[in-house]
């Protein structure tokens, strides 16, 4: 009987020790989880560039020159034309490219002049030489421009005039230096015709 009581007491003692150990392990695990959560939050805070000023400038886009155009609703006609001419892939390539991008208003003025209602009335063969006339090889920022003529991707040259603002042929640059990963976009107010 005494042996049974001793065994029972031993079992209770072992169970208590196991429970205490499990409880201590659980508490330690909870503390570790709490510390890990804190560390995770701290690391996320450390990575938040808002606190450290390493954000990219607003003018520095992460995408290609095509992505820049797609992201701006004022280039929707340009994007439609580039898509129809099957040039989006080429202009998303490594480059670098300088694109003189006409606005929707510039395209509407051209359509009125041509007597057409929009991109749908023009073929890819008609659009391609016009669109490639707006692209120059290399990343040419506004500070690099001078009074000169520059060869475009369609083989013909455009005239750059910086005597009074910046003019490309007869169009004016209305916004310059929208930088992307494969080049730069300058907004122009008139479609360039080769």
User: CATH class of the largest domain, please?
Assistant: Mainly Beta
What's the helix count?
6
Low-pLDDT residue spans: 6-13, 15-23, 25-61
Indicate how many domains the architecture comprises: 2
How do the SSEs run, as a string of H and E? HHHHEHHEEEEEE
The percent range for helix content is 40-55%
**Per CATH, which architecture of the largest domain?**
Roll
**What is the SS-derived class?**
alpha+beta
How would you sum up this structure, described in words?
This protein is of the alpha+beta class and 194 residues long. It has two domains: 2-51; 65-188, FAS1 domain (Roll), CATH 2.30.180.10. It has six helices and seven strands, in the order ααααβααββββββ. The chain has helices at 2-47, 65-71, 76-84, 88-91, 104-114, 124-132; strands at residues 97-102, 135-137, 148-151, 157-161, 167-168, 171-180, 183-188. A seven-stranded mixed sheet has the order 2-1-7-6-5-4-3. A hairpin with a 5-residue loop joins strand 3 and strand 4. The protein is globular and about 35 Å long. It starts with a helix and ends in a 6-residue tail after the last strand. Residues 6-13, 15-23 and 25-61 have low confidence and may be disordered.
Write a concise keyword list for the protein shown above.
single chain, 194 residues, alpha+beta, FAS1 domain, 2 domains, seven-stranded mixed β-sheet, 6 helices, 7 strands, globular
Question: What is the topological layout?
Answer:
Elements: H1 2-47, H2 65-71, H3 76-84, H4 88-91, E1 97-102, H5 104-114, H6 124-132, E2 135-137, E3 148-151, E4 157-161, E5 167-168, E6 171-180, E7 183-188
Parallel strand pairs: 1-7
Antiparallel strand pairs: 1-2, 3-4, 4-5, 5-6, 6-7
